[in-house]
Design brief:
Helix content: under 10%
Shape: elongated
Structural class: mainly beta
Number of helices: 4
Number of strands: 21
Strand content: 35-45%
């Protein structure tokens, strides 16, 4: 809110130097020396216009700029976007090459052929995708789905990837809606100054998830340390500074879709134990899930019998076991996916 108030009060700012209004295209065409010359001529603030998105930049003597505000809400609509400290509830390690898997939470890996992989590097500092397939036309991709409820307005949005290791690699980004497609855009990028910034327009509010596909074709390796989706039309010169949400906040968002409990020990002492040795109890989820999830539960000791899941809600579930004999504990492995 401070950033928005700062921008709205632009006209009331003290006279600290000339404010110049400029389009994003014009700014992109100016070199660092050109911008330094503007400062020398008295310019201190740049009001950069890109369609309906306006950004205020402070201009320094060396031609560098400082992002001061925007007329758009500045919030990242992606989950688990900080690849330097990602949520990884499934515990994936190293190079993941299994089709249909999650190298980290909320980012789905797919491929067409062998010889491709994705994952977090050994030092846990960036996300990478490598296509070393031997077959021409081979591809690999990671996908992130944004719930329709997060898209509050029609208009321009900007999807951003920041490269950890700068490489002249083209990346294909495709956006569509899972049901009743209302738009699909495919664009190939060469990163500029380490950024891929892709602006697109939503002309009607979505009714289902919007999927962002990041493709890498044969021979390409790409690596990113963060990603973002902002409301508004930004360029690499006008992007808001990336601010991590923090691990706790990211985990809470991810657990709306998936929660893992590697080893769960639940007491089976219950007044309802009957002559058939039926034991039962309830589990409350760590976070309320977006919908009642699918529960995957495996009995830890086969002699205890079979677990039955009943009464699943977004907040938790009830389980029931028919065992051969009363035990003080009942152990099973479990996770749940919404």
């Amino acid at each position: 809110e401070f950033r928005r108030v700062l921008f709205r009060s632009l006209d009331a700012l003290p006279a600290i130097g000339q404010t110049v209004e400029i389009t994003a295209t014009e700014l992109a065409g100016k070199s660092t020396a050109d911008r330094a010359a503007m400062y020398a001529a008295g310019t201190r603030l740049l009001k950069v216009v890109n369609g309906d998105t306006e950004v205020l930049l402070g201009l320094d003597a060396d031609g560098s700029t400082e992002w001061l505000g925007s007329n758009k809400p500045v919030r990242n609509l992606l989950d688990n976007s900080d690849f330097t400290n990602p949520v990884n509830q499934r515990g994936a390690t190293g190079a993941i090459n299994t089709q249909g898997s999650y190298p980290i939470d909320r980012w789905f890996f797919d491929k067409s052929h062998a010889g491709v992989s994705a994952g977090i590097d050994a030092n846990n500092r960036y996300f990478y995708m490598a296509n070393n397939a031997a077959v021409d036309g081979a591809w690999c991709s990671i996908t992130h789905k944004v719930p329709a409820a997060k898209i509050a307005h029609t208009g321009k949005y900007t999807f951003v990837l920041h490269e950890k290791i700068i490489a002249p690699a083209d990346v294909l980004i495709m956006i569509d809606e899972n049901s009743s497609p209302f738009f699909m855009q495919r664009t190939t990028f060469t990163p500029q100054n380490g950024y891929i910034a892709f602006s697109f327009e939503i002309t009607a509010l979505p009714t289902a998830n919007i999927s962002f596909y990041i493709y890498a074709s044969k021979g390409i390796t790409v690596s990113f340390d963060w990603a973002a989706l902002y409301e508004g039309s930004y360029t690499t010169d006008t992007l808001p500074p990336y601010t991590p949400k923090g691990y706790a906040a990211e985990l809470a968002e991810c657990q709306r879709y998936y929660q893992a409990c590697a080893t769960l020990q639940l007491p089976i002492k219950n007044p309802d134990v009957d002559t058939n040795n039926i034991f039962q109890n309830s589990v409350q989820f760590f976070e309320t899930m977006r919908i009642a999830p699918t529960i995957n539960a495996v009995v830890g000791n086969s002699e205890y019998g079979t677990i039955t899941i009943v009464g699943t809600t977004k907040q938790g579930f009830h389980w029931r076991v028919t065992a051969d004999a009363a035990e003080s504990k009942y152990v099973f492995l479990s996770n749940w996916t919404a």
